[in-house]
Amino acid sequence: MTPRPASAPVGTVTRGTTNPNRLRRMDRWIAAAHGAELRRAADPLAVDLGYGAAPWTALELLHRLRTTAPRTRVAGVEIDPARVASARPYEREGLVFLRGGFEIPVPGSPVLVRAANVLRQYDEGEVAGVWRRLCARLAPADPAAGSRGGLLVEGTCDEIGRRHVWVALGPEGPRTVTFATRLGSLDRPSDLAERLPKALIHRNVPGEPVHAFLRDFDRAWAAAAPYASYGARQRWIRAVRDLTADWPVTDGPARWRQGEVTVRWGALAPRGW
């Protein structure tokens, strides 16, 4: 892969914290939700933006996406030149590491950009501009071919990937918010609030939609307590099923069983967004 002409990378160096298998929940969701787009794309390029101090997440993304879209290529992009240099010995067929930032220094238009734990370190007021810039780099939609275009997945997780919340955006802007967790570690759904992405984490206050959603989720979880005798998975499924009466949940039991629930962005968007 030949990178785009050199220019100053856009963004700032993050802490670079990373661990093997940290992004497994996000990766599994991407493979399920976006695998068809990757399979039909002429050039199924995915970008791991801000992969951190070690290349593990980019290697894992390549492996997981190729199980559903075997032609997928991955470019790991980091703004810190030392991190790029240390990652390059791990390059292989279908995987390269490049220096860059939000400009995404790859030729063409990626079918996927994953940015995990990157915007957490930016100000809330910067998020919308970064989203617009990254969405503008995505492969465009082609309705005639049944394509909705590329996907940006931006979110935050804990250090070992037990709890994760992300926003999925297309070329047109934000589409959905997904909450994903290891159910055995969960006391109540609002435990996920600490992993809300930057666009939402400061909005978990009364009067904001995301606060109302987590409040209702906790209530549904409490009402589903009798199902706990069948396991945390059955309790989660029942709670999510009850949520669908009032919230636009976009997925179904197959994903709920994974400890996930996906809701339309418009229902959770901050006031005045």
UniProtKB/TrEMBL annotation:
One Gene Ontology MF term: methyltransferase activity
- Could you provide one GO biological process annotation from this protein's UniProt record? methylation
Q: Answer whether the UniProt record assigns the keyword Methyltransferase to this protein.
A: yes
Keywords assigned by UniProt, alphabetized? Methyltransferase, Transferase
Do you know which InterPro entries this protein is assigned to?
Answer: SAM-dependent_MTases_sf
Protein name, per record:
Class I SAM-dependent methyltransferase
